[in-house]
Amino acid sequence: MKVAILRYNAGNTQSVQYALERLGVTPLVTDDPALLTSADKVIFPGVGHAYSAMNYLKSKQLDQLIPQLKQPFLGICLGMQLLCEHSEEGDTACLGVFPVKVVKFDAHLAQQQSAKLKVPHMGWNNLQEMNGKITKGLTANDYVYFVHSYYVELADYTTAQTDHIVPFSAMLEKDNFHAAQFHPEKSSQQGSQIIQNFLEL
Amino acid sequence: MITKRIIPCLDVKDGLTVKGVQFENLVVAGDAIELGRRYAEEGADELCFLDITATNEKRKTLAALVKRIAANINIPFTVGGGIKSVDDISVLLDSGADKITINSAAVRNPELVTQASKEFGEQCIVIAIDAREVAGEWYVHTHGGKQKTDIKLFEWAKEAQERGAGEILFTSMNNDGTKNGFTLEATRQLTEALTIPVIASGGAGAKSHFKDVFEQANADAGLAASIFHFNEIGIKELKDYLKAENIHVRG
């Protein structure tokens, strides 16, 4: 099986690469359109800033390519946000695969809540209302690792949700596109299970 | 709901884990990767690796260690020690670190916090602050605690947040290594003053100390070293205790 990790200027590709290797898969890290198109699976990781990431994708015409891909595709963290329509981070028009908006956590609202929540949302939180293809084998309230200051609102394509200040989309799914706001590559056995499920699609 | 985090810290010297008392008298506690892997299996929420001997020549050794950790461990980890520039950060993140921690260099050059946050995102920039209380005031110390500055803890923490730090790792030098518990009042003041998460460090010696720092100081995470390395408290045992005490933890 050929698994491609999409290389761009916001990819934390190393951790995803190691997570795949622990599952016995050696991925290819590439931004070559031909290699991406011919891969069996494509993973789109990401840690960084939406605006500069989109600029980079445009400079390589990857913004045109990504929505056209037909094989199972997994966006992680910023990768998930970039698949949405628009991000408040840098007021950025994104790839539009999911017709959903990415907005910033309200730090002031967070401070007013009794638990005095923090932004970034950093740490382990539980998954609820799971109904996607790649969460099989997980149990309601299983914990996964999040690090983010922007979130995807709940939408028709939400396949798992988490609560921090507000309930938001922890996962999205539409056709061949799958996405996780958290980091499956850093989420212990539960995260490995999700990656394994994706590889088996 | 987000959980309180338990973070074992591995002070690394030449690839081995070491631990001192109030920053002195180092003793060897074991292989860094082995310990890290064991903690991950036992339910640690994150790991923190601090290279306490990091010098320019040793930078490559640290990157190699980070690669080995990333290959072996499926939970997030933070790396620090001697980071002075955006280039240093870039090397460690490219090697597989999830977050980096900056201490002395950020105090000397606060602009580094701004640059690093812009370049890599605030979520991976942890500002470590070692502070000591002298006559009711908390003063920031640098160089592994050896140099006192006139900078006050709360002012520096706020500035770091404004410059784009994603998290503060606060070590009380008064408490470090004593096993008498975390400093509660200063930690509480920090968590009240900041909107970013605060990791409390220094002084953990009993399970109840974690309960205290979560309940009374609202710390987001508790960090400790020797109690874990020398098997005085197991991570699972600690989490079972915290759950029984109604503290929200994972596992």
TrEMBL record, chain A:
**Pathway involvement of the protein, from the record:** Amino-acid biosynthesis; L-histidine biosynthesis; L-histidine from 5-phospho-alpha-D-ribose 1-diphosphate: step 5/9
Record keywords: Amino-acid biosynthesis, Cytoplasm, Glutamine amidotransferase, Glycosyltransferase, Histidine biosynthesis, Hydrolase, Lyase, Transferase
Please name the Pfam families in this protein's record: GATase
- This entry's Enzyme Commission designation comes to 4.3.2.10, 3.5.1.2
Instruction: Quote the catalytic residue positions.
Output: C77, H183, E185
Query: Among the record's GO biological process terms, what is one?
Result: L-histidine biosynthetic process
Localization recorded for this chain is: Cytoplasm
Q: Is Repeat included in the keywords of this UniProt record?
A: no
A single GO cellular-component term from the record reads: cytoplasm
The protein's annotated catalytic reaction(s) are:
L-glutamine + H2O = L-glutamate + NH4(+); 5-[(5-phospho-1-deoxy-D-ribulos-1-ylimino)methylamino]-1-(5-phospho-beta-D-ribosyl)imidazole-4-carboxamide + L-glutamine = D-erythro-1-(imidazol-4-yl)glycerol 3-phosphate + 5-amino-1-(5-phospho-beta-D-ribosyl)imidazole-4-carboxamide + L-glutamate + H(+)
- SUPFAM superfamilies of this UniProt entry? Class I glutamine amidotransferase-like (SSF52317)
The yes or no answer to whether the keyword Amino-acid biosynthesis is present is yes
Tell me the HAMAP family matching this sequence. HisH
Functional description taken from the UniProt entry = IGPS catalyzes the conversion of PRFAR and glutamine to IGP, AICAR and glutamate. The HisH subunit catalyzes the hydrolysis of glutamine to glutamate and ammonia as part of the synthesis of IGP and AICAR. The resulting ammonia molecule is channeled to the active site of HisF.
PANTHER family, alphabetized:
IMIDAZOLE GLYCEROL PHOSPHATE SYNTHASE SUBUNIT HISH
How it assembles, according to the record, is: Heterodimer of HisH and HisF.
Write the protein's name: Imidazole glycerol phosphate synthase subunit HisH
From TrEMBL, chain B:
One of the entry's Gene Ontology molecular-function terms is: lyase activity
Q: Which UniProt keywords apply?
A: Amino-acid biosynthesis, Cytoplasm, Histidine biosynthesis, Lyase
* Pathway info: Amino-acid biosynthesis; L-histidine biosynthesis; L-histidine from 5-phospho-alpha-D-ribose 1-diphosphate: step 5/9
PROSITE patterns registered for this protein in UniProt:
ASP_PROTEASE
Protein biosynthesis among the record's keywords?
Answer: no
User: What is the predominant subcellular site recorded for this chain?
Assistant: cytoplasm
Checking Gene3D superfamilies in the record gives: Aldolase class I (3.20.20.70)
Give the UniProt subcellular location, in the record's own words: Cytoplasm
Q: Name one Pfam family in it.
A: His_biosynth
E.C. code? 4.3.2.10
InterPro entries this protein is in? Aldolase_TIM, Aspartic_peptidase_AS, His_biosynth, HisF, IGPS_HisA/HisF, RibuloseP-bd_barrel
User: SUPFAM superfamilies of this UniProt entry?
Assistant: Ribulose-phoshate binding barrel (SSF51366)
A biological process from GO: proteolysis
Q: Which reaction does it catalyse?
A: 5-[(5-phospho-1-deoxy-D-ribulos-1-ylimino)methylamino]-1-(5-phospho-beta-D-ribosyl)imidazole-4-carboxamide + L-glutamine = D-erythro-1-(imidazol-4-yl)glycerol 3-phosphate + 5-amino-1-(5-phospho-beta-D-ribosyl)imidazole-4-carboxamide + L-glutamate + H(+)
Its top-level enzyme class, in one word, is: lyase
Say which family it is in. Answer: Belongs to the HisA/HisF family.
Q: How does it assemble?
A: Heterodimer of HisH and HisF.
Q: What is this protein called?
A: Imidazole glycerol phosphate synthase subunit HisF
Q: Which organism is it from?
A: Microscilla marina ATCC 23134
Q: Which gene encodes it?
A: hisF
